[in-house]
Amino acid sequence: MQVAPRAFALVLLVVAVLLVPGGGAARAEGPRCPYAVAHDAPLAAVESTIAEEVGFRHLRVEFNGVKGDRVPGWLYVPTKGAAAGARHPAVLLQYGSGGHKGTDYIVALGKQFVARGIVVFTIDSPGRGDRKEKKGANVQDWIVSDKGRDEFLHYCGDYSRAVDYLLARADVDPSRLAFVGISWGAITGVTYAAHDRRVKAVVSILGGGGPLGLADIVRGKREESVDPVRNVGLIAPRPLLLINATKDQVILRPFARALHRAAGKGAEKVWFETDHFFNGMDRAAAGETVIDFLLKRLPGAPL
After folding, report:
1. Terminus-to-terminus CA distance in the chain, angstroms?
2. What residue numbers bound the domain in which 212 lies?
3. pLDDT of 18-33, one tens digit each?
4. Within a domain: residue 33?
5. What is the CATH number for 264?
6. What angle do CA 123, 125, 128 make, to 5 degrees?
7. pTM of the model as a whole
8. Number of domains composing the chain
């Protein structure tokens, strides 16, 4: 008997919710932090200028990741009207599973954010961009081995190191640091940011949850689940914006709604009438929604 993809996804979600304590909602105390950090390890950061653009400087940055390997990234630093010694809000901006630091929509968003006075950092995650020699995990790797989970945790650990780097910069305001993730960047980023209080606001674009919790239970990792549904509750009371698409072909509505429910009433939830690729929608307008949220909800006066 064949099962339609959407029906299978719904069944998988129901099973995951039933197996997670508390009916799938994040518990008050939440799961333990599942990923490693290395705050005291040397970053050995190296920076080089890619271009001096109108209103911002574009740099390539490389630093030591959580496992000691080198992590490359692109940094966008505002220069327009920036007074000497000024500190800016900062965003760690991460992309979907097929992307990297130079993916067109991420570059466009980075330039849009920096035009509003925000320092933007995007890194190549394991197996992406300049780190593509490492083969990424697939669905089977989540069920029959720990490879999928280990890669997820590697992502989170490197996000933590990227924040270590941002907070070491004199031009970044540590009280106004946020994480913005899209698709897989949102899925990994919600779990990461839930356990890092240095991140003061979170935006999940086209994220969701449920199935990874089932994989964790199968692998005996329930108490350290990486599923966003199990972790998102720990973001409160920090500002959280959840953006999803009504016609999403990848993050189906049950998975998005599971994340929305687990996030609680304090999170802001927005549904755009578009698909996973924002077809038929003004992407710049969506970007402005995110920027406006951050500048309004991060501590301190808006720019």
Report:
1. 58
2. 5-25+38-297
3. 434 443 344 446 788 9
4. no
5. 3.40.50.1820
6. 105
7. 0.89
8. 1
